Each structure stands twice: as C-alpha cells, then as structure tokens.
Amino acid sequence: MAQNNGFEDIGSINTPPRLVSGEDYDMWKNMMESFFCYQEYGMWRSIKDGPYVSMGASADFGNPSVPKEPSKYSDEDIKKMEVDFKASGAIQLCLPNEVFHNFR
Fold this sequence. Notes:
It contains 4 helices and 4 strands, in the order E-E-H-H-E-E-H-H. It has one domain. The protein is elongated, with a radius of gyration of 17 Å. It is mostly helical. The strands form 2 sheets. It has a two-stranded antiparallel sheet. A two-stranded antiparallel sheet has the order 3-4.
C-alpha cells in the first residue's frame, strides 16, 4: 500500500483509514469520525459517549439501577452492545502494532 502522510491507506466507505504514525493523528481522527458516521452513527456515539451498559432495577432503594446480569440482556441490549464492539474493532484494525497492544 502506498503511504500518504501518516496513513498507510486513506480508507474507503467500507474500510477505515489505518494510522501509521501519530504525526497526522488529528486528520486521522476526523477521517475516523466521518467513517463511523457514514457506517452507523451509533458507532460514533459509542466512541464519544462510551460503551452502552444495560441497567436493571436494584433491590437496594439507595441504588435504583445496577448493571444487568448477561442472562437478563434483551435483544435491544445486545444490539447496542454489538455496535460498541464494531466501533472498538474498527479502531483496533486501524492502529499500528505498537499501539494496538495498549488499546482497550
């Protein structure tokens, strides 16, 4: 692949741009935002706002909601979590090897 600034590949509608060096991070970040918004806006919301946490009622009146047990996830909960995993996976695919291992 031809190198263009800090990018190995500019990306496309279906392929996010791969970051090669941190020198062009700001441009890469803008391109990633465009990629996520085009693919599925929920992916960009997941990046900006953090992952979805399915909450359920608590027996403790001082704590009205707590994260649900996985066995109690609804189909809607699972769909929202899948969007988070897609967003996280797309970012991981774009990172250089030396940065990839630090991503969570």
